[in-house]
């Protein structure tokens, strides 16, 4: 459906948040690659919240939905900086969706002054055992 939509030039662009969620303004989470598999032009936007007047980040481990809602509703303002970045397309036909997503992610992170060397979701959950085992096997082969 996405391919069909972007092929029709009469239709408006689709707004997609490839992170699926936000993190505490320190890093960019791993992008879901699905929106980068359909081709087309990506118009990256970097958004960074300014927590001086009110913090938009919801730490689900610390605050309930009621407490978070109360904090947002009683904050003086929710302020954010928004940067519209140059459009991006796949560099080569061979570039896969994951590489394209990571390239877009790096541009967004650089503009927003955030780090990207890891997936920000790791703050919320543990690494899968299968990924640990894969790295252990690679290390054993080196040793």
Automatic annotation (TrEMBL):
CDD domains: LPLAT_LPCAT1-like (cd07991). GO terms for cellular component: endoplasmic reticulum membrane. Coiled coil: none annotated. GO terms for biological process: phospholipid biosynthetic process; triglyceride biosynthetic process. Keywords: Acyltransferase, Endoplasmic reticulum, Lipid biosynthesis, Lipid metabolism, Membrane, Phospholipid biosynthesis, Phospholipid metabolism, Transferase, Transmembrane, Transmembrane helix. It is a multi-pass membrane protein. Residues 7-48 form the Phospholipid/glycerol acyltransferase domain. The keyword Cell division does not apply. One of its GO terms (molecular function) is glycerol-3-phosphate O-acyltransferase activity. It is found in: Endoplasmic reticulum membrane. Pathway: Glycerolipid metabolism; triacylglycerol biosynthesis; Lipid metabolism; Phospholipid metabolism; CDP-diacylglycerol biosynthesis; CDP-diacylglycerol from sn-glycerol 3-phosphate: step 1/3. It comes from the Eukaryota. The keyword Zinc-finger does not apply. Belongs to the 1-acyl-sn-glycerol-3-phosphate acyltransferase family. This is GPAT3 acyltransferase. It comes from Xiphorhynchus elegans (elegant woodcreeper).
């Amino acid at each position: 459906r996405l391919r069909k939509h972007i092929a029709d030039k009469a239709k408006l662009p689709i707004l997609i948040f490839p992170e699926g969620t936000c993190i505490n303004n320190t890093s960019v989470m791993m992008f879901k690659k699905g929106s980068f598999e359909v081709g087309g032009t990506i118009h990256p936007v970097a958004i960074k919240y300014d927590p001086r007047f009110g913090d938009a980040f919801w730490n689900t481990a610390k605050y309930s939905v009621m407490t978070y809602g109360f904090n947002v509703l009683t904050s003086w303002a929710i302020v954010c900086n928004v940067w519209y970045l140059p459009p991006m397309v796949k560099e080569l036909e061979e570039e896969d969706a994951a590489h394209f997503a990571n390239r877009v992610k790096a541009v967004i992170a650089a503009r927003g002054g955030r780090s990207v060397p890891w997936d920000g979701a790791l703050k919320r959950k543990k690494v899968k055992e299968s990924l640990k085992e894969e790295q252990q096997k690679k290390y054993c082969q080196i040793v």
